[in-house]
Amino acid sequence: MSVILAIESSCDDTSVAVCNNGKITANVIANQTIHQNYGGVIPELASRVHQQNIVPAVQQALINAQVTKQDINAVAFTRGPGLLGSLLVGVSFAKSFALALNIPLISVNHMHAHILAHFIDDPKPNFPFICLTVSGGHTQIVLVKDYFDMEIIGETLDDAAGEAFDKTAKLLALPYPGGPLIDKHAQQGNPLAFKFAEPQIADLNFSFSGFKTSILYFIRKQEQENPAFIAGNLDDICASVQHSIVQILLNKLKKAAKQYGINEIAIAGGVSANSGLRNGLQQTADELGWKIYIPAFQYCTDNAGMIAIAGYHKYLKQDFVGQNVSPMARMEF
Ligand code: KG4
Ligand code: ZN
């Protein structure tokens, strides 16, 4: 029997979850809207808002899960990677909470947790599977051999896929985070209206910085001829950019599946909420006979539910850390 409290504070969402014997019974996410005014996450503001949100989020999670502090057997927390000031709030809270209740601490890697979110609901993937993890900070293709035996077989050499969405949104004067807004406009646009060249990157790696620049030049050129180009074509621009990003991701995923002879394919991370990627993956699966796994929306973007399930699998192995643990902005995979 185990009841695990999990804390996620790596970026701009303060999230607290409860995992009761492998089932997520609470997943509270306090989003920080303050960053919308700045076009990106301001680390100093993020830490301050985590500090304000963390205790109310914990109280709400306990209420939602219908447990008391005394029922908790262990505290799992995101150790990294992420913004150091943000991580410090969650890690310090977790350590104090565990110390006060005299219960063990479980350290979780945020990128592992995005993948382990697939073990929250059914159907669960079978090992080995391939996971495309696409978020605001990372783009990785991971060979997942077991819960904590994972190998990065491809990754971005520069920007992440989420950044490609967010930076394009910024060019289009859409507020941060732009990914969900591009997705919304894309649903009303023509994905083939404009063409953007696919970057030619070796192996299973990605590059999005040149892609982003090509969109910038394209928009500048169009605006010279028609100053109202963005306003008049917003849906088509969003649909075309989204289509291009999704094709880049799916092409590498196809290559990885073929190279490793694996047809159990998962997606994870904030960009896995994208409707174009979800539909494109389904289509590819139908064509190639893949068995695919797509997390529920609440477990795609940053959330403590994924930290809780990762914590649960570490709890089963009694894999704990001491009170001298500290957060890591960069963390080995
Ligand atoms: O995993 P996540 O919540 O945080 C990180 O660990 O980075 O991912 C956030 C990223 C942002 O870049 C956001 O724009 C993107 O995920 N995102 C989306 C969608 N929902 C979130 N991108 C495209 N379409 C979406 N529907
Ligand atoms: Zn994340």
Automatic annotation (TrEMBL):
Gene3D superfamilies: 3.30.420.40. Keywords: Acyltransferase, Cytoplasm, Iron, Metal-binding, Transferase, tRNA processing. Its cofactor is Fe(2+). Its main location: cytoplasm. Coiled coil: none annotated. Fe cation binds at residues 110, 114, 302. Binds 1 Fe(2+) ion per subunit. GO terms for molecular function: iron ion binding; tRNA N(6)-L-threonylcarbamoyladenine synthase activity. GO terms for cellular component: cytoplasm. Its EC number is 2.3.1.234. It catalyses: L-threonylcarbamoyladenylate + adenosine(37) in tRNA = N(6)-L-threonylcarbamoyladenosine(37) in tRNA + AMP + H(+). One of its GO terms (biological process) is tRNA threonylcarbamoyladenosine modification. CDD domains: ASKHA_NBD_TsaD_bac. It is found in: Cytoplasm. It comes from the Bacteria. It is an enzyme of class 2 (transferase). Residues 23-308 form the Gcp-like domain. Belongs to the KAE1 / TsaD family. Required for the formation of a threonylcarbamoyl group on adenosine at position 37 (t(6)A37) in tRNAs that read codons beginning with adenine. Is involved in the transfer of the threonylcarbamoyl moiety of threonylcarbamoyl-AMP (TC-AMP) to the N6 group of A37, together with TsaE and TsaB. TsaD likely plays a direct catalytic role in this reaction. PANTHER family: TRNA N6-ADENOSINE THREONYLCARBAMOYLTRANSFERASE, TRNA N6-ADENOSINE THREONYLCARBAMOYLTRANSFERASE, MITOCHONDRIAL. This is tRNA N6-adenosine threonylcarbamoyltransferase. The lineage of its organism: Bacteria, Pseudomonadati, Bacteroidota, Sphingobacteriia, Sphingobacteriales.
